């Protein structure tokens, strides 16, 4: 047992219809306190609200600020064993200063200087990387164990790289430029349910693992649409495909909008194309606890306001527009990150005035804890319009 | 957003290998604070420990104390709309005064006076009742909606009554004696992931629902071993069998010990019989987030120390013995409740000296969050001997 | 390759719109024949009918005739290695003299004289036994291998005993009376898809296996409603519960009719109670290829005519009444067996005039190939009224 | 009931240890015959063999012969309503002249003249098309119903086009050349289990459906690796991806052989690359009853002899080599088709002497009934070397 938490908890929402305070009641309550007991009737409003009343706040982080601070960290904070990663996490203002973007999700900017390595380790937390700008870093996955060498996975703008828990991994920046990207993990969820394991790996990756590949081995085995390699038997809990390349995501979204224009549907709603990154082995979410999606909102289109149980983090990948989360509303542009707490309505509008691109679409990367809710039958969704 | 939590979070476990504190670093950290960012490298020891390091403490609550305080509450705290239930919850000493037995589990003693009704409501939290002593209360499930009347489920010593989320339910004490039982729910888990919905139901249950049945309708449809009623099509997320009667549980455990004595195995380990309460529709756990089991440790037997990810609450149903949880050890007897935090080793020994029963076995009821861990592929188990 | 079938196949249903017979066409057809080719256009009416047009006929076998012939066989045909079982199978008049009750199902009366053993063997064919009269035989399952001795499963009137493929089994008649029962298997299905394996077992079962148990070990482990033994890990393709006792089946059916009379539904349709025998491990059908059900039609009730893809065999367990299968209609009584071919409408009426029983219900045991159809998404059902 | 089959069935394999023929036995057998009964003991050798003893024979059909006869049929047999398709099926010499390649599989060459249409229909039989040469035909799927127009799917050499049962479909040859391809269906299986439904569709497809698309709509929605369109909710029993293009199959196989050469495995065995066509929605086989795979055997490589329950049909797509099926052995070249009956060992060797291609690999398309066996837990496999 650690001693993190404050000793006394005062519920945020008082319960109605409390019994009259009498000496007998006060004595009863002292008895409860002495025996480490708490009555339901004083807590029910906080614990069992009519609908989710998230502790997390809708909040926006500007990419330019994240990027600037990450660059400063790159100058003065080394990367190495112990600290493990130069990752700087979003700390939701409603969550007590903890580095939790939402009650279940971790989102951080990671930054690697030219030639730097982030050391090998593994952990039960499920993770992914998403690249909003730059290229040149690759991630080596699975380098310890039976395989002669880890699988080097290059990272470029728009790429999505999932990595299921308990796989060894390291990072290497082979270029002469620093690189930043986004890490998403289920660190808060696993912190809450207390399922975490962690191990250090090798101090150095091998020379063979430093050679820049064009495609990872995982893509060569699993990256062909609808084709399963017969040489692979059992597959672990996450996707065996370690990189979802931007060219495919982009084409899939364009195809949906084109189908819509041709009168064949294909979009979620008018002007709103969307794909989910899925495990090619079984079609499930890429990770047991994390869902990842890409949404393209065509120029001038607006999504219907939707609220769902569970929380999401979005990053603007391209374009600009306006997003509404609960009562908040922000103009957003490339790289900006924001969170949608549980049951807060969300909608997005693509900015009509854009002219610097053919499409003018607002491209949003999203990740969420939806697989947790679906596996446990806790998912609900509602269009609030 | 509510404002429950303290604004600044200091991790319990400091991370090693921190960068040297310089004016530049201090300025960087001020920048992080201003932008609501937290670096991984100061938090990693707390967030990503080598193994689960539970915030919860092993702890024991004596039944006689619970029972005494519940009786006092019965005298002075009314049951009614708003407070909803006269339920008094275990508050783990490691969890900041919250009414959480473990980070994910709620356990409470509920108490109902002769003739009292606990009003109808429903909630997404999955729940069950387990009866360690007494009888005479029944629970009316599903009374609002299409069905002409709810299904009255009698409760007697040893009975286990699961109830999946979002089913209407009320309680009624038809006898001239008060009755106490244990409520188990996933309130903490749903509080953490923020999936809760709640609705008030009717103010009064109907007269028809006040008639004491011998068996509930659910038992008449689903309580025959291996036989599924063809009249029932789709079944919701939890077990359609609303009562697991003690006579069946007792017989199943006796049968296992007898098989063992006859040389045919049947037990988990020598002298240790155990059953899991399962959904007869599909064999899964009775509730999407909660597992319930019954363990019988024969006179003089001892269970191997096991540690698992996820947490459990145990109640001694019969017999007496010694239980060890992590570094703690307690002599326990009927009704005592204790918690096993994530990854703390647990073992139990039946007390050899008992003579007031043929068997002298230690009977333990257990519930846990194991279905959450299994659904999300986070389950691990280790025998520590 | 064996050479069973006739060399030339003439489809039963001629295809319409055939091309004009010319010398060129005749030469083409000779070319086809020479190259072992057959055109679709001459066969399509037979191969791809508008709806299933079963080769099997509705047919009834009278129990008294089966019983009489089985008794004769008991006198003159020994049971032993090679022939393996004194089993006499229903041969549907539409299926070319083969011992196939339907294209996929085998149904036979098996007969064992006092003191006789049917030798141990195993096969991939899934099997069950159902007892319409008598008792005194038991089946020893799993006697070879790791287990010290097989599990002796007693058989009594009304009991249903499933046995998944590739389990060793033998039979023993411990009484001074002969006994008859029904064997159901998927022999025709496995014959058609060619998946059969078979092995001889021990020549004699052990003395320990000859002791009459009250209940089998499987029932002691798996026969308690909703309770799973924790000592059992992986379970094979069929039900681990080897006997479904009549007392439970009877009670479940009575409970449904009682619920209906009390206004709570519970039956499939008015006066029609029904249960499916299911695998307590996962709620699925008891065997991968065979479904088994029990139907009770209350005195004077009539079931709606239903047709389904797939075929069934019924045995009258008790009562009497009238059954309609396609265009056929029969008065039936205890022990009578009949088949319902694919897509032939079936309904049953309980005989109102009965007085020799309180209930006067018509009790029907049914088995079918429905799991095959459901697993392969070929199931369809239609009420034809 | 139809009257296809011969009235008396003589088993191919006699059972041993028959009872001595006496007048009593003869009378008993006459009794059996009269009551439509057949004893197990005379049939067991045929019905329950030690291992599958397929009625089907290993057999080879030469593509040049098929092609020649199809061309002749193109000249003299019109395509139209009633006959439906100019399809000529392989009739296994062991299966009594029926157009069954194996007991469960249908394989036919289909031939369409320039400008011809094959009329729209639908059936429960699951189907696919595979193109060994030519291009210019497309298949219109789903043209009746809610969708304004069917989805036109172009067909080119190497393409694989699955189509789950009960989808409307037609074919159109838009070019000035005839085109031939292979149809694979589960016609024999559904004939045996009697699950077939069939309906005629429109007499003519629309003009919009005659426009040659570059890619089908299904490919634009589902053909991007690991990306699921969020606009599609429920998906039926088969793959929503209606074309698996050769470029992807070819690249996947090349990638595996390259990984092997680089020391990273990736192949099934040395020199043997293989992929399975899978449903991108859930990773399952493309059709509930049919599996489809592509195998590439590198120049000079040989596959280990494997036998499996269930049967397969192979077509040589490219290269040449030697294949062994049971006791048969054939030199094969482009387009040749052969069958592997249940439990017959199969191996293939690529011909070393080839020089007309860089790779010299033997490319084999394969389809089988494996999903049936796996769904019903009847699958077994053995390497016979």
UniProtKB/TrEMBL annotation, chains A, B, C, D:
InterPro entries: Cupin_2 (IPR013096), GDO-like (IPR047183), RmlC-like_jellyroll (IPR014710), RmlC_Cupin_sf (IPR011051). It comes from the Bacteria. Keywords: Dioxygenase, Oxidoreductase. Pfam families: Cupin_2. Residues 110-183 form the Cupin type-2 domain. This is Cupin domain-containing protein. It comes from Nocardia jiangxiensis. The lineage of its organism: Bacteria, Bacillati, Actinomycetota, Actinomycetes, Mycobacteriales.
């Amino acid at each position: 047992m650690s001693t993190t938490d404050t000793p006394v908890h005062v519920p945020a929402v008082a319960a109605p219809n409390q019994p009259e305070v009498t000496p007998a009641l006060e004595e009863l309550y002292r008895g409860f306190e002495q025996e480490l007991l708490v009555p339901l009737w004083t807590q029910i409003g906080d614990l069992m609200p009519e609908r989710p009343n998230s502790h997390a706040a809708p909040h926006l982080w500007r990419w330019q600020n994240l990027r600037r601070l990450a660059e400063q960290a790159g100058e003065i904070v080394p990367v190495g064993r112990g600290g493990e990663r130069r990752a700087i996490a979003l700390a939701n203002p409603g969550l007590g200063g903890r580095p939790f973007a939402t009650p279940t999700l971790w989102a951080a900017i990671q930054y690697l200087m030219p030639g730097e390595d982030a050391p090998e380790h593994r952990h039960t937390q499920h993770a992914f990387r998403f690249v909003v700008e730059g290229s040149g870093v690759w991630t080596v996955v699975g380098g310890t164990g039976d395989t002669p060498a880890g699988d080097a996975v290059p990272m470029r703008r728009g790429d999505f790289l999932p990595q299921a828990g308990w796989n060894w991994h390291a990072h290497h920046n082979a270029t002469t430029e620093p690189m930043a990207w986004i890490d998403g993990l289920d660190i808060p969820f696993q912190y809450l349910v207390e399922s975490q394991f962690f191990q250090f790996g090798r101090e150095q990756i091998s020379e063979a693992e430093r050679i820049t590949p064009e495609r990872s081995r995982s893509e060569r085995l699993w990256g062909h649409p609808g084709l399963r390699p017969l040489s692979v038997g059992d597959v672990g809990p996450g996707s065996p495909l370690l990189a979802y390349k931007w060219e495919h995501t982009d084409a899939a979204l364009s195809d949906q909008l084109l189908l819509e224009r041709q009168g064949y549907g294909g979009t979620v709603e008018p002007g709103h194309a969307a794909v989910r990154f899925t495990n090619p082995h079984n079609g499930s979410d890429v990770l047991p606890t994390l869902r990842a999606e890409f949404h393209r909102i065509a120029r001038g289109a607006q999504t219907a306001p939707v609220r769902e149980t569970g929380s999401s983090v979005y990053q603007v990948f391209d374009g600009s527009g306006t997003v509404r989360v609960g009562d908040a509303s922000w103009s957003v542009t490339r790289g900006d990150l924001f969170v949608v707490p549980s049951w807060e309505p969300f909608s997005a509008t693509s900015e009509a005035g854009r002219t610097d691109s053919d499409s003018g679409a607002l491209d949003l990367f999203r990740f969420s804890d939806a697989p947790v809710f679906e596996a446990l039958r806790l998912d609900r969704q509602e269009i609030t319009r």
